[in-house]
Structure to design on (334 residues):
């Protein structure tokens, strides 16, 4: 019989205090959590994920009140964004406080902070935090470069025994990773698009949010912004809607078994390898990683994904699809 909610949280906190890894649900994707103040525990994250050690981790906090323990400067912009969007799918990059571990920041002078909006995560964080505002370093709970998990089963499948406990909070509501905004260098720079759009941030800040990302930096500050990421093992190609039927016919003509993810309805020849995606962006994002996993498991030779609309609302989804397509070509990042 499964344990009650309180017992599960208590067990998770005990494991975290003992330096073990606990995967937990957030509204975006599942996180692989470790005590952010324990270097040995944080090292286990990199081992479990197979992630390069210079890639920084987001510290998850119980509330915005804990920010000052982790960031040495709190610009007005950070306070405003926290008040508006936390708990929620927004990560802020701030100048790190003394004592924040190099293993967490990737030896950078900044730290990523987020208060996630999921009842189980918030209960876990509140119980874990204690008087000194402890936080959980938690990347997405997948192997490096692969698809982020949006259910507890995905995590178990991906990481198996490498994680001491998986808290099951059901499927993630948002489905893609948080928006990341860098506030550490004056102004606001968007490092990773997510469910909260740059325009929403700009509106609250009353000033522009610059487009940024790892391409402009001298090091991989945001591993999720490397070109190849979030990738299934099966080759994946993005195809404009108008070219989809032809691309499908051509690939089948070459003898390939082709799976399709499309917002449009299947043609007669669609068959069971045609996966219907939601027409609306929130539904599409919610289902995206689970669908990519399903499509990957079919054993097809090729996954064709119909391109999504080229507008601001679809920016984060389009970003993840582009990286999934590149990731299956350049597997060196996994
Ligand atoms: O929605 C999310 O953000 C999920 C859930 C679990 O919270 N987490 C997540 O973590 O996506 P991860 O590690 O897979 O991606 C976080 C990104 C990484 O690409 C990392 O490079 C970037 O955040 N990041 C963390 N700290 C940073 C820093 N100090 N400066 C720049 N980028 C940072
Ligand atoms: Mg990740």
């Amino acid at each position: 019989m499964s344990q009650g909610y309180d017992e599960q949280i208590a067990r998770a906190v005990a494991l975290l205090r003992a330096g073990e890894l606990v995967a937990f649900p957030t509204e975006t994707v599942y996180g692989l959590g470790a005590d952010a103040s324990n270097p040995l525990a944080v090292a286990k994250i990199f081992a479990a994920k197979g992630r390069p050690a210079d890639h920084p981790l987001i510290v998850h906090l119980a509330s915005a009140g804990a920010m000052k323990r982790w960031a040495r400067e709190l610009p007005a912009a950070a306070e405003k964004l926290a008040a508006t969007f936390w708990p929620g799918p927004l990560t802020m990059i701030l100048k790190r406080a003394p004592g924040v571990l190099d293993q967490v920041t990737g030896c950078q002078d900044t730290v990523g902070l987020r208060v996630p909006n999921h009842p189980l995560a918030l209960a876990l964080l509140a119980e874990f935090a204690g008087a000194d505002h402890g936080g959980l370093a938690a990347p997405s709970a997948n192997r490096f470069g692969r698809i982020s998990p949006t259910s507890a089963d995905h995590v178990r499948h991906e990481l198996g025994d490498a994680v001491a406990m998986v808290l099951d909070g059901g499927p993630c509501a948002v489905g893609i990773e948080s928006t990341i905004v860098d506030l550490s260098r004056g102004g606001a720079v968007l490092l990773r698009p997510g469910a909260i759009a740059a325009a929403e941030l700009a509106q609250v800040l009353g000033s522009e949010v610059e487009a940024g990302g790892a391409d402009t930096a001298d090091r991989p500050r945001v591993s999720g912004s490397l070109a190849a990421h979030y990738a299934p093992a099966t080759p994946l190609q993005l195809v404009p809607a108008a070219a989809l039927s032809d691309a499908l016919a051509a690939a089948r003509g070459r003898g390939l078994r082709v799976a399709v993810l499309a917002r449009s309805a299947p043609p007669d020849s669609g068959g069971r390898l045609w996966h219907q995606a939601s027409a609306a962006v929130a539904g599409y994002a919610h289902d995206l990683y689970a669908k990519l996993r399903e499509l990957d498991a079919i054993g097809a030779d090729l996954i064709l994904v119909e391109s999504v609309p080229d507008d601001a609302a679809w920016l984060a989804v389009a970003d993840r699809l582009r990286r999934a397509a590149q990731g299956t070509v350049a597997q060196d990042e996994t």
